[in-house]
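INFO  loader      accepted 1 record
INFO  loader      residues=233
INFO  predictor   begin
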Amino acid sequence: MMHLTSRNLQAINLFISSCSLVFLALGILVDDWVRLNIETGKNVKIHSPWKYSTIWPKGDMEVVRILLLVVLSLSYFYNCYLGMEYTYMFPQTACVIFTAAFLTCFTGILLISALILYHIRLRQGKSVYYLNYHLTWNISTAYISIFFHFASGFFSLLEYQRRATDSSLPSETETASQGSDFRMQSGSSIQVISLPETPPPPPSIVRVRSQESRNSDIPKPTQIQKRRVTWAL
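INFO  predictor   done
INFO  writer      dumping tokens
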């Protein structure tokens, strides 16, 4: 399994949030989300919730458009928020990470609510303002943006888990090093240290008298007698 650091998770999260913002902007540029059949099959009009339309009465689609504008603003703010976190302008704390996860999930929920309300308004207007409607593939850009929003929240939580794991590693390493030092100290206490052999003493200047010289210094009995006779004379 590939090991992803917290820095790599931040980069992936920033890329995903940028993709969600790009797909939202793409939905603004493409205005044919729905094709409406007004009277006959030949009279077809295109519609997008981002733009004002005179088909519905004033206020029916205004709520959807306001929700989409709020989603776009929050997505832009969230992307800037992650950029500041990536460049260390925000402290790398759990509060910052959970704020990012809550912000992107809340934006995704708002986008889901806007799309659900848009589908309700389309069904309510059927047979009243138009005969039928047909959804195009351009509306899928909003659903892809929803996916990226929730994926970004998942990576934010994964980043928090990675940071919690990395913060617990130094204490475990320190405990293991202390245990190894204790084992080394206990092992060294019972270790038998052999001393080096002492070198032979240098030859002494004072010569030890041999046994023969000692015996020669002891006077013999004949010598004693001669000394006595000589003294008597």
